[in-house]
């Protein structure tokens, strides 16, 4: 089964693929403005703390289950469940995870299509294709359908090639490109007037807000969603890991890389916002908070680039190439969740399963696009604010309450022989069993309170 399913051929391949899954659009536009609105450097400190206190233990639960079972989410949770009732619960949780991953990809592909549009727009401008450039930045159903289809086709083309030749190869190409583009943009933005104001807001902590419940909950949510936990992406990637790899080490590196990219995004986006303010653009909403989300990416930042003249066209191309890469590395992991189940449960060829699932998800995206005002926000809220934490809670429960502790230890020990004497094993089993579910329940409760 292992050969048929494929596996990552190197540590670097897994780290880049798993980090790519975790690094998404929300990291790049969500983390910086969350930090600015919640105590600047105080939020950054709390985020890094919670990334390792909550996200890392939950990530480990997915990786251990995945590598032990070498299966998709549905089969994996059933495999570690000892009783009939727990197997049924594992089956239902697995199917729910596949559904949520598919729904996330359905709306994610729409937003990623917008990124492609804003990447192609400066290209069209340079070529003198003003009509095309205008169409790319217009908000129309046809444009959204075409760009969403194009993005999903790109995602499917990676998944079709398999684990080594698709996911691993392209992650090893795209992630270094993402790092280089981000580093180059940070240097460029830092040299512009006004950038230092954004940098101060981002890095100088307001320690009076450090224990503010709003800051803590915001950092908690960012840390959890940052690593794409709950929907089985990390479980699937764990199932492609070789037995000799140390899971605690791998999980720690992925958490660190993901957190570092979120931090770098702040070094780019917040200074860029204040550069835009220096040029006369408004960076605050009517309520007095910093512009965030789609308004930041599709209004303020493009307006900043246009004010830069000819050089702004090239900077815009690099920025939206960066955003498109971040979207693609996340989308390939989400698509692998339903594809892996289809391949293993129905003995379907990878190519057929990929394009079939891709077509179904595009159909879902099309329904959302056509009924955008009614469905988009609803799907985002149900999938990310409620379903992901609930699924993360269930995976922690299966890894620590349902699965036998000795089997968990045996699986971790295969790549880390002395793990029983390590600080990790002295803390993680109890922490993941009690603390993680409580923290996730807090996150869920906060989501309901804010709804």
Give a count of the beta strands, DSSP E runs of length 2 or more. 0
Cα-to-Cα separation, first versus last residue: 44 Å
Overall pLDDT:
89
Into how many domains do the coordinates divide?
Answer: 1
Please tally the helical runs, counting DSSP H or I stretches of 4 or more residues. 19
The radius of gyration over CA amounts to 21 Å
Helical amount: over 70%
The CATH topology corresponds to Hydantoin permease
Along the chain, the helix and strand elements come as HHHHHHHHHHHHHHHHHHH
Based on secondary structure, the structural category is mainly alpha
- Stretches where pLDDT is under 50 for at least 5 consecutive residues are none
In the CATH hierarchy, what is the class? Mainly Alpha
Verbal overview:
The chain crosses the membrane at residues 12-31, 43-65, 94-120, 140-162, 174-195, 215-238, 250-274, 311-335, 355-380, 431-449. It is found in: Membrane. Its main location: membrane. It holds the Pfam family SNF. By secondary structure, the protein is an all-alpha fold. The chain has 19 helices and no strands. It has one domain (2-450): Hydantoin permease. It is globular. The mean pLDDT is 89.
Task: Please specify the SSE layout and strand pairing.
Layout: H1 2-5, H2 11-22, H3 25-37, H4 41-69, H5 73-80, H6 84-126, H7 130-136, H8 141-160, H9 162-190, H10 195-203, H11 213-226, H12 233-239, H13 247-278, H14 293-307, H15 310-346, H16 350-370, H17 372-402, H18 405-413, H19 423-450
Helix pairs in contact: 2-9, 2-13, 2-15, 3-11, 3-13, 3-14, 4-5, 4-11, 4-12, 4-13, 4-17, 4-19, 5-6, 6-7, 6-8, 6-15, 6-16, 6-17, 8-9, 8-15, 8-16, 9-13, 9-15, 10-13, 12-15, 13-14, 14-15, 15-16, 16-17, 17-19
Subcellular location: Membrane
Protein name: Sodium-dependent transporter
Main location: membrane
């Amino acid at each position: 089964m292992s050969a048929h399913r494929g596996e990552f051929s190197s540590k670097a391949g897994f780290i880049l693929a798993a980090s790519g899954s975790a690094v998404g659009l929300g990291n790049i536009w969500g983390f910086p403005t969350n930090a600015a609105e919640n105590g600047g450097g105080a939020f950054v400190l709390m985020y890094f703390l919670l990334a390792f206190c909550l996200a890392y233990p939950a990530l480990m639960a997915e990786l251990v289950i995945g590598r032990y079972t070498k299966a998709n989410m549905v089969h994996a949770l059933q495999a570690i469940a000892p009783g009939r009732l727990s197997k049924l619960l594992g089956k239902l949780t697995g199917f729910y995870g596949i559904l949520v991953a598919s729904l996330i990809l359905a709306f994610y592909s729409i937003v990623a299509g917008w990124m492609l549009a804003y990447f192609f727009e400066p290209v069209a401008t340079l070529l003198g294709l003003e009509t095309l450039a205008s169409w790319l930045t217009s908000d129309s159903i046809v444009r959204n359908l075409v760009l969403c289809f194009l993005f999903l086709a790109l995602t499917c083309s990676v998944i079709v090639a398999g684990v080594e030749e698709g996911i691993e190869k392209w992650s090893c190409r795209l992630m270094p490109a993402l790092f280089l583009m981000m580093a180059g943009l940070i240097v460029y933005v830092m040299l512009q007037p006004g950038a230092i104001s954004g940098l101060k807001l981002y890095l100088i902590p307001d320690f009076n807000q450090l224990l503010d419940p709003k800051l803590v909950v915001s950092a908690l949510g960012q840390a959890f969603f940052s690593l794409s936990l709950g929907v089985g992406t990390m479980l699937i990637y764990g199932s492609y890991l070789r037995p000799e790899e140390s899971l605690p080490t791998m999980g720690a590196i992925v958490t660190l890389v993901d957190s570092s990219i979120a931090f770098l995004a702040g070094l780019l986006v917040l200074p860029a916002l204040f550069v835009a303010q220096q040029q006369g653009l408004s960076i605050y909403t009517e309520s007095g908070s910093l512009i965030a989300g789609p308004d930041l990416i599709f209004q303020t930042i493009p307006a900043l680039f246009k004010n830069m003249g000819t050089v702004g066209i090239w900077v815009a191309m690099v920025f939206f190439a960066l955003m498109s890469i971040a979207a693609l590395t996340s989308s390939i992991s989400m698509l692998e969740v339903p594809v892996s189940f289809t391949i293993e449960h129905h003995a379907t060829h990878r190519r057929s399963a990929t394009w079939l699932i891709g077509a179904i998800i595009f159909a879902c995206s099309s329904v959302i696009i056509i009924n955008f005002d009614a469905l988009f926000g609803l799907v985002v809220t149900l999938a990310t604010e409620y379903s992901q934490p609930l699924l993360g809670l269930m995976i922690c429960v299966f890894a620590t309450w349902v699965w036998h502790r000795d089997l968990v230890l045996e699986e971790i020990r295969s790549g880390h022989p002395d793990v029983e004497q390590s600080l990790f094993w002295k803390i993680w089993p109890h922490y993941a069993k009690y603390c993680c579910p409580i923290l996730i329940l807090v996150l869920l409760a906060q989501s309901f309170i804010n709804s």
